[in-house]
Design goal:
The protein is an alpha+beta fold. The chain has helices at residues 16-30, 46-56, 76-97, 100-106, 117-120, 145-162, 176-181, 213-216, and strands at 68-73, 123-130, 132-135, 138-141, 188-196. Helix 2 (46-56) crosses helix 6. Bound molecules: 3-iodo-tyrosine.
């Protein structure tokens, strides 16, 4: 049964043709998004970062628990500490911890253990997932935490693209060093590291194609 705290839905419904056009235009727009590793150091206002994060935080979540914290770092000292720790882990990854198959799969992207973007990008957003919340000293469980935080991260990437900015989903592994450097409580675990910035002049991305609709859609009509 519905509780009495329901309010009228206030979303926007478009005429059929406009809706179809919007779907097409949005696909075209989103299909131009690329993960980028070459950032400019051009600053971005805190207010912009805040709006990007609040867009992410509007994502759906299990029982509307919003089980996330977004740490927005522009302090160069903290960014350096993050770069140093991430590169230490990545050095070990690229020199023995990652399988031959994995390294081969990554070769076309030209990645290695060097992560200069962690200092060059004006902001690093570190997304933390919260397995539980602590309310008045009591543990309160969260639900579908990975799904929820994954959705919020997707919203964040979309918002960054929409603002004409660039990012990549960086997953240094293991990334518990982020919890230590950022002094996060025990109920928070690092989920993704999202640098945000403008592209470096002349930035390049690998030439790649995306799967076709036949490859990704199965209809049951
Ligand atoms: N975390 C490493 C390796 C890496 C793994 C995957 I899967 C990628 O798509 C890209 C990189 C790194 O950031 O270099």
């Amino acid at each position: 049964m519905k509780s009495n705290n329901f309010i009228p839905y206030q979303g926007i419904t478009y005429p059929v043709e406009e809706s179809a056009q919007r779907a097409k235009d949005y696909y075209t727009y989103m299909d131009r998004r690329r993960s980028l590793r070459e950032f400019s150091d051009r600053p971005i206002a805190k207010e912009v970062i805040e709006n990007l994060i609040m867009t992410a935080s509007s994502a759906p979540s299990g029982a509307h628990k919003q089980p996330w914290t977004f740490c927005a770092v522009c302090d160069p000292v903290i960014k350096s500490a993050i770069r140093k720790a991430a590169e230490e882990e990545e050095y070990t990854n690229y020199n023995g911890r990652m399988s031959e198959e994995w390294l081969k799969d990554l070769a076309p992207f030209g990645t290695d253990w060097h992560k200069p973007f962690l200092e060059i990008a004006p902001w690093l957003i570190i997304v933390f997932k919260k397995a539980y919340d602590v309310v008045d000293g009591e543990k309160k469980k969260n639900y579908y935490v990975n799904e929820s935080v994954g959705l919020a991260a997707g919203f964040l990437l979309t918002a960054i693209h929409n603002a004409g900015l660039v990012t990549l989903t960086h997953t240094p592994s293991p990334m518990n060093f982020l919890q230590k450097i950022l002094n996060r409580p025990d109920n928070e675990r690092p989920f993704l590291l999202i640098p945000v910035g403008y592209p470096a002049e002349g930035a390049e991305v690998p030439e790649l194609t995306r799967k076709s609709k036949e490859d990704v859609i199965v209809y049951y009509e």
